[in-house]
Q: What sequence folds into this?
């Protein structure tokens, strides 16, 4: 899969939605949940890119240039090198300092079971954003085996089946009274978003870079998503949004991802190709990891290092939080993630480079 520059900028928009949500800023009339939308865009984008990487590997397997076992091993080596170092370093730092509930809940996060913890115990402050990273890792445990080992003719049916599992799982949970956090964070409840990105990657690999039905579906999906969210917001009906809201948003975000992969033109294309925006997208994984810890870290820094009270003005707090997160992410990429990422490039099965997703989602 060749480098697709506008997708980096989509990551910037996705992580911005999550940061805006955790800053406590609301959308007009409250009908857009910035954080949820950002994570869902990340999921669709991740499913698209990961499936594209795996389909590229499958092409090499079918051409006799790679084995299935070698492709799986390569996939996990590269994923581990990209994801684990900064993730575990961040966990140990925030647990050591004592940020939020990071220390008492550390075993859950070390095992990438944050989402299971929240499904059982509910949200828990500064560590709550880690749930989506667990969903991503759980997706990685399953998806390569399906894409690389199933018969080729079975792939579209399996991908469509995975898409159907999401709303079906959420419907069953609603019928049995499962708590809404569990419905939101458990992997089967997110699978339609990831798999829909996978479907778009499969269509692209088979010559349909922009499926004809997708723009019309997106035009219907967006107002439906707003209707579902409005019904839930004003407590008129929560179930339709819980079951179908992600379907609608996933279709809309899928259209955006597919268009950006081809390259938006006009004003949208100009925006998505702005270098500062793409630069933020490239460090979006670290931004996602750090941002929810930044406020408490800044408070400790002001108290212990500067011997001053942390500013009480919300605008000042937000400026410090966002600015500190961006600086920390840039430093992390320059001196930690970047060198490891370059080392990761030593592990490849052929001369064609791939452009892998930043994990965030989230």
A:
């Amino acid at each position: 899969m060749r480098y697709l520059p506008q997708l980096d900028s989509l990551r910037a928009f996705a992580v911005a939605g999550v940061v805006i949500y955790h800053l406590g800023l609301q959308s007009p009339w409250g009908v857009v949940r910035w954080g949820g939308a950002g994570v869902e865009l990340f999921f669709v984008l991740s499913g698209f890119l990961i499936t594209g990487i795996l389909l590229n590997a499958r092409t090499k397997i079918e051409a006799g240039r790679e084995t299935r076992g070698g492709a799986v091993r390569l996939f996990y080596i590269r994923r581990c090198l990209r994801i684990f170092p900064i993730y575990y370093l961040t966990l140990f730092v925030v647990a050591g300092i004592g940020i939020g509930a990071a220390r008492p809940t550390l075993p859950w996060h070390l095992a990438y079971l944050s989402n299971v913890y929240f499904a059982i115990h509910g949200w828990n402050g500064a560590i709550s954003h880690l749930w989506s990273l667990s969903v991503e890792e759980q997706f990685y445990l399953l998806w390569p085996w399906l894409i690389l080992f199933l018969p080729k003719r079975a792939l579209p049916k399996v991908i469509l089946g995975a898409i159907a599992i999401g709303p079906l799982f959420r419907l069953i949970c609603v019928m049995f009274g499962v708590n809404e956090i569990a419905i939101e964070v458990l992997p089967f409840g997110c699978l339609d978003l990831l798999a829909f990105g996978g479907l778009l990657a499969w269509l692209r690999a088979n010559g349909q870079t922009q499926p004809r039905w997708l723009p019309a579906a997106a035009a219907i999906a967006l107002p439906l998503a707003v209707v579902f969210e409005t019904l839930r917001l004003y407590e008129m009906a929560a179930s339709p949004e819980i079951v179908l809201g992600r379907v609608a948003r996933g279709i809309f975000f899928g259209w955006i991802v597919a268009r950006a992969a081809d390259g938006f033109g006009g004003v949208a294309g100009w925006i998505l190709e702005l270098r500062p925006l793409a630069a933020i997208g490239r460090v979006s994984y670290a931004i996602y990891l750090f941002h929810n810890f930044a406020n408490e870290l800044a408070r400790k820094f002001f108290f212990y290092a500067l011997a001053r009270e942390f500013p009480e003005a919300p605008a000042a707090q937000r400026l410090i939080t966002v600015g500190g997160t961006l600086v920390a992410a840039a430093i992390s990429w320059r001196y930690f993630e970047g060198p490891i990422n370059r080392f990761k490039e030593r592990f490849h099965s052929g001369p064609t480079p791939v452009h892998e997703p930043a994990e965030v989602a989230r």
Remarks:
- The two ends are 22 Å apart (CA to CA).
- The CA atoms of residues 18 and 170 lie 23 Å apart.
